[in-house]
Write a structure and sequence with these properties.
This protein has 518 residues and is an alpha+beta fold. β14, α11 and β15 form a beta-alpha-beta unit. α3 packs across α4. The longest helix has 18 residues. It starts with a helix and ends with a strand. One of its GO terms (biological process) is peptide transport. One of its GO terms (cellular component) is ATP-binding cassette (ABC) transporter complex. This is Heme-binding protein A.
Length: 518
């Protein structure tokens, strides 16, 4: 008889605790893991896909890391100070840090990365940088960020995937997206890029010149590309694979794999991201431009079914735009429960004539494909003429960046504070073709812009909360996107892979501390 998933998680947590009490770390060995799907590129900041973050968070670094309680920890910055007025942040960089090509990492790299590279390429960083008046390197190892006004979540902004440090000497004055070094990423992290055999494996090797004494312990990490979900599960079962990062096997396989001998599981490592699944809805044209249609979609979807059947009960059905892990959630809103009758009423009210719309599934595995099929069935049941159009990851990125869709699955990170991970989806000045990570739906509401912008810098928190409650009421009515699920993403691994999850981003930067007890 199979153990319930909750018992499997408890057993895994006990094993995880025992592992933490094991012998002193051992050096050597290569961990074999999986990346699913294969990332479109490895240059963080330029590419924001979750698979890119997972691999490249071990190549690149930010100024800070974050604990599972979202407390900032030193990384490339060894210390920092905040002025009494909350406007000046001074970061003191570690000395003796080098890029993987041997060049010195300096404060000028920080200024270039933040003020040039990310302002051009990175929508999540841009949302933070709009509060920054100036960035100055006062010497080789000191950087001063001066804000236009206090911005409460500023210290939560410096994780590697959001404020990646990139080498100025390789990118300054170039066409960033066509830079020759994009095929061989150069970071400061504990592992160096070695080889990418497309469709097969991405190989990282130990950075022998890493500045943190004794780290990393591992000789390397191999990220295998195995397109078929069943084959990924088999590879873990036969011990070809040591670590299954979240989302690399189908959810229906997790309970069985968690019961195996020498298998541990943890749900830690996603506190910083708070992954939030959404249904992009094109607000520009067609039936989806009418908020009554978007409301009908919300009422038509059976999100509890998706959670219980497709996601093994992991995660939560969100109330609205703010997930339960985000600060300032307005829990007085009326939930969009599964109500097909109400959906039909709204469609009749708007005069929907059966015009065909399309859904783009997220090409991240069978669970997402099944989810798209379930939503398609829900929508057809209320009279919406809908078809799915499957794409690969590159095609999905392209179509969303070009706004060539009606409905499309995605998930974004909420980053613990609405000013960091939520507002970017709804602010009208974050509408820009070419990215699947900004205001892709094309939602424009002047009052929403005012509220988000004012709340980001309001003081104290009670004032922020008032503003965020009002903005949630408006979004709840307008339904710019469909709010699907606060995702629960466990990581499975061999119990002899020690100390794997040591921060709020999990394996994205965890391999620097990991070691093999073999």
């Amino acid at each position: 008889m199979k153990k319930p998933l909750a018992l499997a998680i408890s057993a895994a947590a006990l094993a995880f605790t025992s592992a933490a009490l094991a012998d002193d770390p051992k050096e050597g060995g290569v961990v074999n893991t999986i990346i699913q799907p294969e990332p479109p590129g490895l240059v963080l900041g330029m590419v924001q896909n979750a698979p890119t973050r997972t691999v490249s968070g071990n190549i690149y670094e930010g100024l800070l890391r974050y604990s599972t309680d979202l407390e900032p920890m030193p990384q490339l910055a060894e210390s920092w100070e905040v002025s009494d007025d909350g406007r000046t942040y001074t970061f003191h960089l570690r000395e003796g840090v080098t890029w993987h090509d041997g060049e010195a990492f300096t404060a000028e790299d920080v200024v270039f990365s933040a003020d040039v590279f990310h302002r051009e390429l990175n929508p999540s960083a841009r949302a933070v940088l709009q509060h920054v008046e100036s960035i100055e390197a006062t010497d080789d190892h000191t950087v001063v960020f001066t804000l236009t006004q206090p911005f409460g979540p500023f210290l939560l902004s410096f994780e590697a995937g959001t404020f990646t440090m990139v080498p100025e000497h390789l990118y300054a004055g170039t066409d960033f997206r066509n830079n020759e070094h994009n095929d061989h990423p150069i970071g400061t992290g504990p592992f160096k890029f070695d080889n990418w055999e497309r469709g097969t494996v991405i190989e990282l090797v130990k950075n022998e010149e890493y500045y943190e004494e004794g780290l990393p312990y591992l000789d390397g990490v191999n990220w295998h590309v195995i397109p078929d979900g069943a084959s990924r599960a088999v590879a873990f079962e036969n011990e070809t694979i040591d670590v299954l990062p979240s989302g690399t096997v189908e959810n229906f396989d997790i309970p069985r794999l968690a019961e195996m001998d020498n298998v541990c599981m943890t749900e830690e490592g996603h506190e910083y991201f708070s992954p939030f699944a959404m249904l992009w809805m094109n607000n520009r044209e067609g039936p989806t431009a009418d908020k009554r249609f978007r409301q009908a979609v919300m009422y038509a979807m059976d999100r509890e079914f998706a959670k219980d059947v497709l996601w093994n009960g992991l995660g939560n059905v969100p109330l609205s735009a703010f997930g339960s892990n985000a600060r300032f959630q307005n829990d007085d809103l009326e939930p969009y429960d599964h109500n097909p009758e109400r959906a039909r009423e709204l469609l009749d009210e708007m005069g929907y004539d059966g015009e065909e719309i399309t859904i783009l599934p997220l090409p991240y595995g069978e669970t997402w494909t099944r989810w798209a099929e379930a939503v398609q069935q829900n929508l057809r049941e209320v009279g919406i003429n809908v078809e799915t159009q499957a794409t690969d990851v590159g095609g999905w990125n392209q179509r969303l960046g070009d706004w060539d869709y009606d409905l499309a699955f995605t998930y974004l990170y909420q980053y613990g504070d609405p000013a960091l991970g939520i507002s970017r989806t709804y602010l009208s000045d974050n509408i820009a073709k070419g990215s699947p990570w900004n205001n892709v739906e094309g939602y424009e509401n002047e009052r929403v812009d005012e509220l988000f912008n004012e709340a980001a810098t309001a003081f104290p928190d009670e004032e922020r909360e008032k503003l965020y409650r009002e903005v949630q009421e408006i979004l709840h009515e307008d339904v710019p996107v469909g709010w699907l699920m606060e995702l629960g993403f466990p990581t499975l691994y061999r119990c002899d892979v020690q100390n794997l999850v040591t921060s709020g981003v999990g394996v994205n930067d965890g391999f620097k501390d990991a070691w093999l007890d073999r």
